[in-house]
Amino acid sequence: MVRKHWLTILLVVLLCISIGIHAYYISKQSEKKADFLSRVYGSLQNINTLLDPAAGYENADSIIRAETEIRRLGDLFFYYHLYVDDRLYWNQMSFDQLAFTLSSKSGNLDGLRISGILEDGVISDAEKNYLRALYDDFQSLMKEMEGEKPNQADLSVSIGQINQYFDAFFSRWNTRSADTPFNILMSE
Q: Directed axis angle between helix 125-145 and helix 2-50, to 10°?
């Protein structure tokens, strides 16, 4: 009888420890998700600041910094997908394609011959239209991530919702889409 009593106490203690560890794990996951959402939103704000049409796209440095920020956003998705939550949709190629168009390089993007905006050192009207389209879509993406408070990420957004937001964004910015904004750069 005493043995059963001690066994029951041991099982209850182990159950409490297990529940405590699980609760700790869930709280850490929640903190990591909130940190991720804040970083994504901050990155989108940086991209929008750098690609703001009000600046007139005369500053090549802001376009170079926007390219870096887009690559950083792709890395952020990669690391969160790899180390925190593998349900997060991650497609590095899509981020890289966007960043490539802001560079001083030229080449093929999935079969489309593209010249980077900074390749010739002059930003044409067509390239400004491309940058405006990119700015508008990043602005829309940022607005979708906002909660009730403007200019602040909604930290309660689920990974499924983030996937939907970025899936919609990248379905427009897809080299295989008939109305892809990449076509603006092909006319150069």
A: 150
Backbone phi, psi, residue 97, to 5°: -65, -45
CB 145 within 8 Å of CB 154: yes
Q: What is the helix, strand, coil percentage profile of the chain, to 5?
A: 65, 5, 30
- Please, are residues 42 and 5 in contact by the beta-carbon 8 Å criterion? no
Read off the pTM. Answer: 0.81
**Cβ contact 3:58 at 8 Å:** no
d(CA 4, CA 78) in angstroms, rounded, equals 50
Give pLDDT tens digits for 47-84: 999 999 988 787 888 999 999 999 999 999 888 887 77
Q: Residue type for 113, please?
A: R
Phi/psi for 107 (5° steps) reads: 170, -165
- Tokens for 20, please give them: 């405590």
Find out whether 130 and 184 touch, Cβ atoms under 8 Å: yes
Q: What are phi and psi of 165, to 5 degrees?
A: -60, -50
